[in-house]
Design goal:
Elements: H1 3-23, H2 30-36, H3 44-47, H4 51-74, H5 81-97, H6 106-114, H7 119-146, H8 155-176, H9 180-192
Amino acid sequence: MSTEHHDIRQSILDTAKPIILGKGFSAVGLNEILCAADVPKGSFYHYFKSKELFGEALLDSYFTDYLSQLDALLSRPGLSAADRLMSYWREWLETQASGDIDGKCLAVKLGGEVSDLSEPMRSALQRGTHRVIERLAQCIAEGIADGSLSAELDVPRSAQTLYEMWLGATLLTKIRRDRSALDGAMAATLQWLRLPATAPDSP
């Protein structure tokens, strides 16, 4: 794949993400995406073999960026692992409770819509969410090692349960149009991790 081909392909994916975050996958036509990306209509299949494989590529690209940001957040120097982990949940709460569509969770937006319609897209969601949980588990293990988290925590179960809870809370936030579910997830997270109810913000 040439550099130009890759750049145009990535530009289509980057342009499509906020559109699909706003409207969903099925409701967005290819021409709308190509027009917004300033790519000639009819050239879509030069970059993607089908809309379904485009959706898979979109999710893979989303999770690549998300995991890069997560890795940076969970490796911040000068903080305990517990503080790094809690900074992730605080950032999640603020981005998902805000009205800024760019920060919204594509896994929540598309999970229910495409999992029964597209096996490649369902697999991309499964791969991406699994990798997020792996990162969270690693951070929890580091917290046990540095003494900032309880040694009694079950690392894999804690990472999976907390991530599932936050995904569910984010979906309820869309349904309720308020942040009550996310606030509840934060309180439950502090309780699960056996941290003070008023955990200090990270510097």
